[in-house]
Amino acid sequence: GENVEQHPSTLSVQEGDSAVIKCTYSDSASNYFPWYKQELGKRPQLIIDIRSNVGEKKDQRIAVTLNKTAKHFSLHITETQPEDSAVYFCAASRRMNSGYSTLTFGKGTMLLVSP
Amino acid sequence: IAGITQAPTSQILAAGRRMTLRCTQDMRHNAMYWYRQDLGLGLRLIHYSNTAGTTGKGEVPDGYSVSRANTDDFPLTLASAVPSQTSVYFCASSAQENTEAFFGQGTRLTVV
Prior knowledge:
The complex is a heterodimer. By secondary structure, chain A is mainly beta. Chain A is built from no helices and eleven strands.
């Protein structure tokens, strides 16, 4: 089955700095890679996703890059703000025995942005 | 209702008791999922359903069962709760595979 490793587990940055979170996956058949943000006590929410036919995707201060050959993908947040403080989860698609694809999540990265 | 709703929001349960966590969505999504979230372990898939009438096992299905009688509802049952099932449980739905998953607000379950 799919295995998703996420690093670092915690990341502290100063406001205005950039933050990078990295994930690796094991299943070369994975083709969908979303990132979720979970604020304290709240539900996870999708912030950006990328599919295997694209190498990079940007949405304002957030970008995701995908290297299919190396089986890793990364989340980049520029000009960080205190409201970016949260736990971030990467995920990769996984084909189940039924033929349906579900998501396997990384263990999460707690990002703390200090003013 | 707008989106996906779970009930209860929290529960303390005696070991050995049976418990059903409820999940309802009004987005007419085909797929629904149950995850458990434990500190340091991320979100782990318990069971899923890609359409009404069908269910499948995820990474950690033991001790849990689900049903999908209709599109909107996807209850999760713990037949005989054990302390290791203490966790935060999230229900989620998506229109189809490999599309955005929308999460419920979570159920915090403590088994004592």
